[in-house]
Design a protein that fits this description.
CATH architecture: 2-Layer Sandwich
Number of helices: 2
Order of helices and strands: EEHEEHEE
Largest sheet: 4 strands, mixed
CATH superfamily: ANL, C-terminal domain
Strand content: 25-35%
Number of strands: 6
Helix content: 10-25%
Strand order of the largest sheet: 5-4-3-6
Amino acid sequence: MGKDLMASEAPGEPQLPIHRLIGEFMSAAPGVERVLVSSDQRAICVWSIVNNLPVDEVHRIYACENILLDRFPQITIDFHVVDRRDAPAEGLIPGAETVYIGEQGTAPLQSAR
């Protein structure tokens, strides 16, 4: 997954690869079942996977994305919200790392390629 950028929320805290920090943050957005991330030299791509989420809940996900864009203005982050509409989540985004799997999956921060 390209060069790992590191970030921490406060001085003295352990450094966390930026894609993991973004994945953990987006996993807290309402209705997000999974967060998939890929990156290259141009951008970090983030897919928040939801299932049949009402529009007002999608707007809450956008608000979380905006917080990250404001927090990391020097990084190009390309966000996507994917509504799987009851389809299996596995294989939706080939080549992306699964950073978070919610209650319907297994455990947070499981890496699957």
